[in-house]
Amino acid sequence: MPGIFKKIFCNALMFLFVLNCAAQEMWGIANSNYAGIMGLELNPASFLSDPFKREFHLVSADIMLQNDYLYLPAGKSPLISLVTFKPLTQDDIRDRFTTPSKNAYGNFFLKVPSYAWRNDLWSWNVHISLRQQISARDMAYHFAKFLWEGSDYTPLHEIDFRAGPFKVAATTVGEIGVTHSRVLYNYETDFVTAGATVNILDGMTGIYVHNKNLDYNIYNDSTIYIKNITANYGHALPNKGEYSILNIIEPKGIGTTFSLGMQWMRNRDPLAYKGGVLSKKPFKKYTWKAGASLLDVGFIRYKNLSETFAFENDSNYWPGFDTTKFYGIAYTDSLLSQRLKGNPLASKDGEKFTIYTPAAISLQFDYSITPHLYANATVIHPLYAITPAVRRPAQTAFTLRYERRHWEIAVPVSLYEYDAIRVGIGARIGVLVIGSDNALALTGLTDAYGFDLYFGIKWPLEERGNKAKPSWVKIALHIKKKESAIPALSSL
Question: Residue 356 in contact with residue 298, Cβ under 8 Å?
Answer without folding.
Answer: yes
